[in-house]
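Long-time lurker. I teach an intro course on protein structure, and each term I like to show students one example going from raw sequence to a predicted 3D structure in token notation. This year I'd like something fresh instead of my usual example. Would anyone be willing to generate the tokens for the chain below so I can use it in lecture? Attribution to the forum is fine with me.
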Amino acid sequence: MQSIENNRSFTQLIEFEIEPHQQQGLVSALSAQTERLAQHHSGFLSASVQASDDGRRVLNYLQWQSREAGEAAFRSFESGEQDFWQLIRTHQAKGVTFGSFQVLRSIERSPDNASQCSLVG
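-- Reply from a regular --
Happy to contribute to a lecture. Here you go:
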């Protein structure tokens, strides 16, 4: 039997600080890279690429079945054909913040339009 900790999903948040004229290009590049990660790495659950209204930030949210799956995908992202560091240079990111989180609770809308909160693990 797996431990509760191994059953928790894993989330990576990567926030980019950029100039507004770079935002759309970074959103496009991250979207393409995220699609490749989803297609080629087991354990992928979901992702989103989000842009701030002021044009100065982009947030990449990636959720994985486990920490190991997320870390393996990120290692690939670091050294892939368009590696992560090249993506940062190309879009002239002024700052990049990384966050890693285990999902402990999840709130979702059910098919009958009710909210439900579940404890993960």
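Some talking points for your students: The chain has one domain: 8-119. The longest helix spans residues 23-40.
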